[in-house]
Specification:
2 domains, 17% strand, alpha/beta, 9 helices, Spore Coat Polysaccharide Biosynthesis Protein SpsA, Chain A, 307 residues
Length: 307
């Protein structure tokens, strides 16, 4: 169980934002509510490539949220065409700030949060569950529904390789987009029970993760793999943490969201399959007739007339 002095430990919440004028204020205020009982809380957000009023919103937050700071990396897309390389670059900016700015010399925990509506279900109770276990170097989120963040996930049995390269390979072998997506991506979006044991992984994320700063060492984010191919930035960062002798886990109780934009297709696919299965069951005349009679009765009772 977490120590009672956890609320007095210095935490730094960091994240990235691009074109977030409509969402950044809500995201920060929600996280601030989750962390409201933590007395030593600081914020550092890195912005880049925005074409809206994100910087104006961030300036407003510096006035409203205690210890809120941000940095703009400017326009990167012209010199860094790879999105994953840009993300890694911006994430390394908050690591540099943590390591070099005297404001953060006493920070004990780094909280990395997505700021694009990936944490609406996060609560203080879920957050505190991270200290039900000791000795971790990274504690990553779970979802109330399919686990969505397969790009950042590496696990020897569950996700040993890049799911999107697997997807492309299946397309090259003649599979349809739907078949390839189901086999490479949707089939691996498993639902992890909140009562499950912690899952040790080589890498994960899932919208929010917490790291004791002592585990970070000189770990850096990378937007590429050993072969120079694009790779999700968290993977290289977690390689560095594990090289320091620490372990990365998915904490099943660290719930931050449910079905979302990344799992919407899977939800629709499951619903469609359920409807098809129900239809074929009802095609049995003995089952279909009572269903139609009950449906007709409800229509008459509601005085709905079909013309």
């Amino acid at each position: 169980m977490y120590a009672t002095d956890l609320f007095d430990q210095p935490f730094l919440v960091v994240g990235l934002v691009r074109n977030g004028e409509k969402t950044i204020d809500k995201e920060i205020r929600h996280l601030a509510k989750v962390f409201q009982n933590f007395s030593c809380l600081s914020w550092f957000v890195v912005e880049s490539d925005s074409s809206d009023q994100t910087l104006y919103k961030l300036n407003g937050l510096t006035k409203d949220i205690p210890n809120f700071r941000f940095k703009s990396a400017g326009v990167l897309v012209n010199t860094m065409p790879s999105r994953l390389v840009r993300l890694a670059h911006c994430r390394n900016l908050y690591l540099d700030e943590l390591r070099t700015n005297l404001l953060y010399k006493d920070i004990k925990y780094l909280v990395v949060a997505d700021l694009d509506n990936m944490n609406p279900l996060l609560t203080e109770q879920a957050l505190l569950s991270c200290w039900d276990k000791d000795g971790w170097g990274g504690c990553c989120a779970n979802q109330r529904g399919p686990y969505y963040d397969l790009g950042a996930l590496r696990h020897p049995d569950w996700m040993p390789n890049d799911c999107w390269r697997h997807y492309q390979f299946l397309l090259q072998q003649g599979k349809s987009e739907e078949e390839a997506m189901d086999a490479a991506v949707h089939a691996n979006m498993v639902t992890i029970s909140e009562d499950s044991e912690w899952i040790e992984v080589d890498s994960a994320f899932g919208g929010i993760a917490i790291y004791p700063t002592k585990a970070l060492g000189d770990a850096r984010y990378k937007g590429y793999d050993a072969q120079g191919r694009d790779a999700v930035d968290h993977i290289g960062f977690h390689e560095g943490i594990r090289a320091n002798g620490y372990k990365i886990f998915i904490n099943p109780k660290l719930i931050n969201t449910s079905f979302n934009e990344h799992t919407r297709d899977l939800l629709e696919s499951r619903q469609l399959r359920k409807q098809i299965k129900t239809f074929f069951k009802l095609c049995n005349p003995k089952k279909l007739m009572p269903f139609l009679l009950a449906k007709t009765k409800r229509i008459k009772e509601q005085k709905i007339f079909l013309r």
